[in-house]
């Protein structure tokens, strides 16, 4: 049986889908025919986006509102998807926050927020999705980390820790779920043109660009392409891996 590059038979949940990387992933999935649930914690923020994707792509999109740091809300949301559609085939844990500061100037609130959103949110969504996928004996969980979590960078120790936690979690989860034919992989973006990086300007931006051997910043669509591959049957024998989408960024 040959692998298909279509997602027409897939039901996907994409967290943090209101902008940037999450929005690009949701659009790519819808363009490939998937039924996509777009998550935001802001009620109403994705109503028009979901309607537009449904009208302009082969797929179908629905907004779904919950805070990834609220375990009960996460569970209720996934059970609502299960009740409405009957299954969850793909989960993309993309929701994230970034507060840059050296350790001595990192506030307790910023540290806790990054650990809660970036790591705990990934954990909570993966926990309930894995239960649903285990019953199906199939699924793909794609966790969005960061190249910073892989190699570290000065001025982002707390953020790096929250993203590095995703790496260890994903490696272990891949081993747990492989017997149930559920794949778990990580995408580690480098410098991608999004709201998270728009404040990096001047000398700081020039320094970052000097570390990218391909000579350009990445686009959200570059990450979306990797997510599509990992969600599709083309990646049916790939699990426990981290794919850097970073243009060969040397830090």
Q: Terminal Cα separation, in Å?
A: 42 Å
Give the uncertain stretches in residue-range form. none
Order of helices and strands: EHEHEHEHEHHEHHE
SS field, number of helical segments: 8
Q: How would you characterize the largest beta sheet?
A: 7 strands, parallel
**Structural class category:** alpha/beta
Q: How would you describe the shape?
A: globular
Task: Please give a structural write-up.
The mean pLDDT is 95. The protein has helices at residues 20-31, 47-56, 71-85, 108-136, 147-151, 157-177, 202-210, 220-231; strands spanning 11-14, 35-40, 60-65, 90-93, 139-144, 182-189, 242-245. The protein has eight helices and seven strands, in the order E-H-E-H-E-H-E-H-E-H-H-E-H-H-E. Helix content is 45%, strand content 15%. Strands 3-2-1-4-5-6-7 form a seven-stranded parallel β-sheet, sandwiched between helices. Helix 4 (108-136) packs parallel to helix 6 (157-177). The longest helix is centred in the middle third of the chain and has 29 residues, at 108-136. It is an alpha/beta fold and 251 residues long.
Helix and strand layout, with pairings?
Elements: E1 11-14, H1 20-31, E2 35-40, H2 47-56, E3 60-65, H3 71-85, E4 90-93, H4 108-136, E5 139-144, H5 147-151, H6 157-177, E6 182-189, H7 202-210, H8 220-231, E7 242-245
Parallel strand pairs: 1-2, 1-4, 2-3, 4-5, 5-6, 6-7
Helix pairs in contact: 1-8, 3-4, 4-6
């Amino acid at each position: 049986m040959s692998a298909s590059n279509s997602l027409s038979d897939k039901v996907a949940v994409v967290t943090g889908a209101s902008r940037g990387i999450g929005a690009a992933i949701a659009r790519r999935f819808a363009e490939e025919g998937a039924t996509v649930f777009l998550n935001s914690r802001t009620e109403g923020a994705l109503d028009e986006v979901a309607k537009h994707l449904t009208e302009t792509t082969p797929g179908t999109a629905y907004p779904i509102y919950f805070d990834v740091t609220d375990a009960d809300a996460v569970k209720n949301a996934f059970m609502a998807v299960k009740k409405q559609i009957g299954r969850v085939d793909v989960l993309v844990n993309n929701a994230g926050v970034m507060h840059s500061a050296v350790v001595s100037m990192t506030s307790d609130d910023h540290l806790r927020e990054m650990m809660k959103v970036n790591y705990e949110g990934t954990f909570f969504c993966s926990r309930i999705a894995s239960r649903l996928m285990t019953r199906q004996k199939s699924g793909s969980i794609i966790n969005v980390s960061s190249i910073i979590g892989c190699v570290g960078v000065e001025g982002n120790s707390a953020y790096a820790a929250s993203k590095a936690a995703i790496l260890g979690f994903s490696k272990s989860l891949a081993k747990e779920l492989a017997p149930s034919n559920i794949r778990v992989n990580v995408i580690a973006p480098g410098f991608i043109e999004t709201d998270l990086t728009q404040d990096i300007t001047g000398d700081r931006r020039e320094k970052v660009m000097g570390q990218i051997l391909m000579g350009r910043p990445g686009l959200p669509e570059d990450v979306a392409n990797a997510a599509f591959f990992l969600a599709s049957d083309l990646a049916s024998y790939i699990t426990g891996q981290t794919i850097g989408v970073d243009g060969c960024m040397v830090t």
